[in-house]
Amino acid sequence: MPAHTFHISVKDALSLKKATKNKSLPTIVVFADDQGQILGNLGDAEYLSRAADLIKQSHFKGGMGDSVTDYAIHAKDFPVVTVVGIGKLDKLADNIAKAAQAVYTAIKNTPAAAILWGDTICQIHFTQFVTALIGAGYRFEHHKAKPKDADLLEEVIIISNKDAQDDYDNALTFAKATAAGMTTARDVANEAPNLLNPSELAQKAKQLAKDYEDTISVSVLGEKDMQKLGMGCFLAVSQGSDAEGKLAVIEYYGKSSKSGKKSKLERPFALVGKGLTFDSGGISLKPAAGMEEMKFDMGGAASILGTVRAVAEAGLEIDLVAVLACAENMPSARASRPGDVVTAMNGTTVEILNTDAEGRLVLCDALCYVQEHYDARVIIDTATLTGACVIALGSVRSGMYSNDEDTLFALEAASEYTGDLVWHMPLDETYNEQLNSKVADVQNIGGREAGSVTAACFLKRFIKEGQAWAHLDIAGTAWKSGSTASASGRPVALLTQYLRSQA
Ligand code: BES
Ligand code: MN
Ligand code: ZN
């Protein structure tokens, strides 16, 4: 298994008392802020006073992520007490994932731990905390002969106030579903590009339908099907590769039923993901340095796959259609050239001026397909679309574009709730004019300026009047770049919370 998994539950302080009386004494985790103040008062005087002594004796400052542990080596019946610093209390909302990381580091090599949560740290933070805590155990090592030793952690109990148990239980269920979706997204995105081609990516969708056979069905279109549908932009990208392009269409029946009378999705939410299993740039070949990171260019599709998993796992009562545009962008004698003119499914002609601006080409046909076949409430696409977005926003926030106020507002709320952050970007007509082609209806690149914006403007040209739509440019957020490059699982938490808020 790629990820280290452990059992996690919410209990009240009384259960902690019972658990610590048993033979297996857990590590008790207590939070303290930068004033050395212990957060939450769960009334168990013994641990709290030990934690207070520990803070004093060790001159613990409570900086974010710092920790100090009392092993009580000679006191036989004492559990280990670890104090984890969360820094400034009023900055906690921005740091909750970091706090979870620190807790994981502090407890990963103990078999069981109880975290004194208390009421100082609210429930919104709780969902984010649990998602990040589970994510902290993530590994991708199945290609190694000798993976690192597994962490010891098996059991985590989060101690909350008794009167809020139900709320916390619901939050826990949702957080676990979200974490499962993120793990799926990361596993798929981290896979090597020779081991995950477009067909194999589409196969992951098929697997999802097997795992959730009551609520999910999947169909996969190949290049012949797409030819019939007139998806000339998609095919212009996939034609240069020996690996066939695929369009995976996933239907989730959370409101109407899959096999019953109403086996048709009712005004579904629609998700579309860019799934370039490798982006070499094509004839407009990318430079060699860092090109290996273009295996993550299917991060959009991976995040959509993960979101569907999370939604199914949480059992959200919505109807949902998700389309993965799976292709590989390669140079070859059959590859598209700069200067080629191709026709999208909706009849729009596109002049390809740079074969490396391929994401928008596979997406425009996927967007046409969704609008042709579904009466979608809203369409949200995710794509590692532009290097320009990485320059603009770095790896902190995804770029968010939309033609619909309600969708913007709801996505922004989900962004704050989950810490899976977005930033609202513009779609002014003046940017869009950069895409006017001399020979076709539109060209696939703007200019040097505002590259993330013009890419979004390109997609918008394929959205019908009155169709609510949002686009997330996740080029900077889908994976952590550099020597230990690894998929982040974003924006699964954002999308899952958004859908939950709309259910
Ligand atoms: N997949 C890339 C975008 C990308 C680059 C994501 C770096 C993450 C890191 C995309 O297909 C691409 O190549 N975009 C071009 C567009 C340009 C040719 C207009 C880019 O950003 O350079
Ligand atoms: Mn490209
Ligand atoms: Zn790309």
From TrEMBL:
InterPro entries: Leucine_aapep/pepB, Macro_dom-like, Peptidase_M17_C, Peptidase_M17_leu_NH2_pept, Peptidase_M17_N. Transmembrane segments: none annotated. Mn(2+) 1 binds at D279, D356, E358. Binds 2 manganese ions per subunit. Its EC number is 3.4.11.1, 3.4.11.10. GO terms for cellular component: cytoplasm. GO terms for biological process: proteolysis. It is found in: Cytoplasm. One of its GO terms (molecular function) is metalloaminopeptidase activity. Signal peptide: none annotated. Its cofactor is Mn(2+). It catalyses: Release of an N-terminal amino acid, preferentially leucine, but not glutamic or aspartic acids; Release of an N-terminal amino acid, Xaa-|-Yaa-, in which Xaa is preferably Leu, but may be other amino acids including Pro although not Arg or Lys, and Yaa may be Pro. Amino acid amides and methyl esters are also readily hydrolyzed, but rates on arylamides are exceedingly low. Coiled coil: none annotated. Keywords: Aminopeptidase, Cytoplasm, Hydrolase, Manganese, Metal-binding, Protease. Mn(2+) 2 binds at K274, D279, D297, E358. This is Probable cytosol aminopeptidase. The gene is pepA.
